[in-house]
Amino acid sequence: APPEWDWRSKGAVTKVKDQGMCGSCWAFSVTGNVEGQWFLKRGTLLSLSEQELLDCDKVDKACLGGLPSNAYSAIKNLGGLETEDDYSYQGHMQACSFSAQKARVYINDSVELSRNEQRLAAWLAKRGPISVAINAFGMQFYRRGIAHPLRPLCSPWLIDHAVLLVGYGNRSATPFWAIKNSWGTDWGEEGYYYLYRGSGVCGVNTMASSAVVN
Amino acid sequence: APAQPRAVVARAWRPLDPELLGAARFALKMYNQGRAAGAQAVLGAVQGRVRREGQGSLYTLEATLEEPQCHEPTVCQLPVSRKTLLCSFQVLDELGKHMLLRRDCGPVETRVTDDGNETLKYVLPGLGRNSLSQDFSVKMASIFQKFMHTYNRTYESKEEAEWRLSVFASNLMRAQKIQALDRGTAQYGITKFSDLTEEEFRTIYLNPLLQSEPGQKMHMAKSVEDP
Predict the structure, then answer these.
(1) Assembly ipTM
(2) What is the rounded average pLDDT for all residues in chain B?
(3) Does the CB of B194 have a partner CB in chain A at under 8 Å?
(4) B199 touches chain A (CB under 8 A)
(5) Do A112 and B220 touch (CB under 8 A)?
(6) Among this protein's residues, is A92 annotated catalytic?
(7) Is the C-alpha dihedral spanning A7, A8, A11, A12 positive or negative?
(8) So what's the pLDDT on residue B44?
(9) Beta B219-220 vs A109-112: how paired, if at all?
(10) Nearest residue to B43 via CA among B2, B97, B85
(11) CA distance B169 to chain A (A)
């Protein structure tokens, strides 16, 4: 892996979104990943619809939570994702109104990624932003800087929030993951969370995945 | 072990009395240890409670400390905008000898505009009923007022506002503990979620399914160095 990487500066990441009072982080994590994959394969950055997943992914539970792995299947089975403009976010479940004619991106498959953070970094630098799930300990009060909670307080087994790895690097010799969150720009560092990289902090390496666009 | 049964007295949070003030001053002295006279923090608002057992007393204190204005940027420990600290102390007094058992301090951003709106007026009586010291209540209410202003919060009733203020105060302490235990460079404090209980936050914003459901099986990606 290169020593640092940031997909934001390469145009592969849309602006930070806000899930509102709804546990739909899984949908934002997956659309963020697909946005990146589509950009890398097709050269166009499109902001994609989370609401489509809330309404039409019948395996997941909309605002009550969901899993990225199920969401990839839903996107594949539905026939793609519409854009944010065409199927805009409401923050609560509605009747599915997906239209195959309006789908602007598709995915062919999805893959699970390594638990080795060095390999994850190498994969990210070459292939794009990664959907991950973490233990959100302390995030309610996070303001800035690199979070490095003690392991007993932030167990990798208690995963409860899905986010998007968009880069990594070092700040004053402290290695970090740059994480795009979906709580708006008025949280964290302009909507981003920085987490210590290298020791599986908060389970960041336990549920890494990506869509595949051929 | 004392021959007589121990008299155990635990008191609720209460306004400051000379005994608590003595413990707070001791905690401050420990906090300032090694500092030059002009660089010492001073005690702001204090509240506390005491638990007595045998001949010992355990003081649990929450206090604001005011750091002096720092005029030398290369040695300043805190930015000028964050010179108020919120501290939790535990002081043990055994046979008249004090010992500082715990000290957690973290900066509080207190750029409060005193625009005198109604919130402050009606949350204070509620705090009084909970036996918090008046100084501490005023300080906390001002910070809460700033939070409401920053994040455009309105509450439906006086009771709701009082409840949210108590949640907010408790969350400041939680944030401070998280700060004390973080090994990175992160700063924790007031965020737009500071008026939510932990349970509310988890229920509204987090995703419990991630740890409980197996999900679709995916095959492993080839690592990037594979041909």
Answers:
(1) 0.95
(2) 76
(3) yes
(4) no
(5) yes
(6) no
(7) positive
(8) 80
(9) parallel
(10) B85
(11) 13
